[in-house]
Design a protein that fits this description.
497 residues; mainly beta; Jelly Rolls; nine-stranded antiparallel sheet
Length: 497
């Protein structure tokens, strides 16, 4: 029977989609004869950040299998970094030993793993339901600054400490956006004037900032972090969280949760309405009302005319369709409703005017017109005083009255611990890079949406799989071997996938 493990299809930072890998097809396989030693173990595998020409070294892998192919027992020994506390910087190593009988094997995934001396949760710094900073940027930590004056043409930028940056980062100095394409010590090679910004001269010691505007567009297109008309959002860091020059860095795999705002709306205050319900409005008559959308200026006296025969709420020429046509016309017309989407529909037996924006400022307010045309509000079955409900975050929990328990609603984007972003648990919508924090997602039913984020960062489990990084090793480091049999060699085969 074929066995499977999980394999990243992305690079070293592990932000791409993962796939199954066939454990019957190792990428490397080495058998070693192992003799008893009281003092020394035999090295089978040394895990490094990059593949080395040195014997018995390997870069990152998806899984490792050790099999006893000899006729006597053998010890398979796995080395991990030990943490005595979340802030431990010692990088001490401890060992987990398995005694394998002949033909026994053990397969371990390349998961983030450490040895801890306590059962405490190494959660780093928790962020809970926080909106991204309103400025869509934060100053690079520890007051890192531009280490030279820049003219408008220079592309090699000297900074105080290049360790604070990664290739692919966006950097903001004053109002100019730069894209980092390579790093050499404390010199960043950049593309100047990126994302609609203008190349400009900058003074020495200018502040360096991580920007996190929606990078599908120019840096100044939106005033807040939001998706675009297609529900897309991209940033090259996770809103500044988990970044720095040293120590424990990055985002903790499996900790990302993103919740969108729900659109504001106005409801007429009806009940038990269906498409076939008569509105009570007079046929072939113009009606008007005022409408204010998303905190903008009121559009006065929006007018629609009822059909000559259909005065029901529903139908292609019914009241709701007529109102929607009037709103859609103004969406494309210069004025107070230009590019302000409103959707009119029957929801829960009432007529709802819902904003097409999912921003925190999303709102719809209806009022009486003033031009002398027949008033929509208060005519026929239409109540005179509609109610407005502003944008809000949905209740996170749903309660079971039978068990008196609660569980989280399926309304979030969450990451799966392998760099993939899932919406409503099953929909693949994007990726997150645990090292840089770069995030990219598309949720089609959340256009023009603000959101809040929950995440853990700067813990031993944050960032990339790392066998050797200072203060932040979080993966298997070595595989060693020995045997308890003093009078015979054992044979251990180690395979990587």
């Amino acid at each position: 029977m074929t066995k499977y493990a999980i394999q990243y299809t992305g690079g070293a930072l592990g932000s791409k989609k993962i796939e199954k890998v066939d454990l019957s097809k190792p990428v490397s396989s080495t058998s070693k004869s192992v003799t008893y030693s009281q003092a020394d173990n035999t090295l089978l595998l040394d895990v490094a950040d990059a593949v080395s020409e040195t014997a018995a070294q390997s870069g990152q892998f998806s899984a490792v299998r050790v099999r006893n192919d000899g006729s006597v027992a053998a010890n398979a020994i796995f080395a991990y970094t030990k943490y005595t506390s979340e802030t431990d910087t010692s990088e001490a190593v401890e060992f987990v030993q398995y005694l394998l009988a002949p033909d026994e094997e053990i397969t371990l995934p390349a998961s983030r793993a450490i040895i801890a001396t306590t059962n405490e949760q190494y959660d780093g710094t928790p962020i809970t339901a926080e909106p991204p900073a309103a400025a869509m940027k934060i100053v690079v930590p520890d007051t890192e600054q531009l280490n030279e004056a820049l003219d408008t043409s220079e592309t090699d930028v000297d900074v105080d400490d290049g360790n604070y940056f990664l290739v692919g980062d966006l950097l903001r100095i004053d109002d100019e956006i730069m894209e980092v394409v390579s790093i050499s010590s404390n010199t960043l090679t950049v593309v100047r004037g990126s994302h609609g910004s203008t190349k400009a001269a900058h003074l020495a010691n200018a502040s360096l900032e991580y920007p996190f505007f929606n990078a599908y567009h120019d840096f100044d297109k939106y005033s807040v972090c939001q998706t675009d008309d297609n529900g897309r959002f991209k940033a090259q860091n996770f809103f500044g969280y988990g970044r720095g020059g040293s120590g424990k860095l990055g985002i903790t795999a499996g900790s990302v949760a993103i919740q969108f705002y729900e659109a504001g709306f106005a409801k007429l205050g009806l009940s038990d309405i269906t498409s076939n319900t008569e509105s009570g409005l007079t046929a072939s008559t113009a009606f008007e009302f005022d409408i204010t959308v998303d905190g903008g200026t009121t559009f006065d006296n929006l007018s629609f005319t009822t059909d000559s025969s259909n005065t029901k709420f529903g139908g292609s020429n019914g009241v709701i369709a007529k109102i929607q046509d009037a709103l859609d016309t103004q969406y494309y017309t210069a004025g107070n409703l230009f590019e302000k989407k409103v959707i009119v529909a029957i929801e829960g037996g009432d007529v709802i005017f819902r904003s097409g924006s999912n921003l925190s400022t999303s709102a719809v307010v209806l009022g009486a017109g003033s031009s002398g045309t027949a008033e929509f509000l208060g005519s026929g079955r239409i109540p005179a005083s509609p109610t407005s409900v502003d944008a809000r975050l949905a209740q996170e929990l749903e309660f079971n009255p039978v068990t008196n328990s609660s569980s989280f609603k399926n309304i979030f984007i969450r990451d799966d611990g392998r760099g993939n972003l899932k919406y409503r648990t099953t929909q693949d919508v994007g990726t997150v890079n645990y090292e840089s924090g770069a995030i990219d997602f598309t949720v089609g039913d959340k256009p023009n949406a603000e959101f809040v984020v929950s995440v853990l960062h700067t813990s031993p489990f944050s960032g990339k799989l790392n066998a050797a990084g200072a203060d932040r090793a979080n993966s298997l480091k070595q595989v060693l071997a020995n045997t308890p049999q003093q009078k015979c060699e054992s044979i251990l085969t180690i395979e990587t996938f």
